[in-house]
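Batch manifest line 288
LIGAND: zinc ion
JOB: complex structure
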Amino acid sequence: MTVFVLFQNLKGYGSMPFTAKVIKTSEWGAQSPKVGASPFSITTPQYVIVHHTANNNPPNDPSQRTLDGAKQFARGIQKDHMNRGFSDSGHNFLNTTGGFVLEGRHGSLEAVLKGRCVQSAHAAQDPGKLAGGNQSPGIENEGNFMTFQMEQKQWDSLVELCASLCSSCNISPANIRGHRDFSSTQCPGDWLYGQLPRLRQEVADKLGLQITSANLNNNPTDQILKLGSNGPEVMKLQRLLIAQGFQPGAVDGIFGENTHVAVIAFQKSFNLTPDGIVGAKTRSALGM
Ligand SMILES: [Zn+2]
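JOB STATUS: finished
ARTIFACT:
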């Protein structure tokens, strides 16, 4: 049995019901989390994070594109993660080669249906990388996508799941990221990482959103940054402001009030319109 839930979130990016069919932990025979670990704390997600399991690709994929194979694969990954000392599966969702989506860490589905996530263990922050990975839903995709191209069925279920998550958790499709944006890793593979702009575009289309193509790129260079923006470009902005003697607060990739005030101070000192919005002129003055 799979769970099909209709969920409507009327603000922001939440224009779509949660249409992804997620097989819950109780339906694939998950072990209980380690004693004392659950329920996991509830977090506010900022991103949707894409991984690959680095397993064999079809025709030698672990799940063999079947439902039973998918459940067996989920049990195997959980066992492996717990043997490595995790409290439970590290990720929140698993998307198999057959297009089956399985809940990872216990409580993940219930949390995202409420617009939240559970504290997980799939994308720890390494120096110079984005923060907030383990507070955001992580999707493991069965396979190794360094060069192998994901088959259509698995791609379609990934798009459906990402759109459902962006909608229910009110996350911009521009904030669909790869594991390598958070940690020093090759995950989710060069090919899949290179497909993230297409994934963001397809998710935006599904949600009926108009997002400029620059904002969908992995390394946007002409993106407008303002209060509420986040991501690697904001970290770069914060570093450059600090280098110029301004004080945007922590280099955390989040364009909050401190960064806003620092941008205005910078703009005033360079005789730019002090609107707190980082467009082409402010970028150029900063050397971005
Ligand atoms: Zn990963």
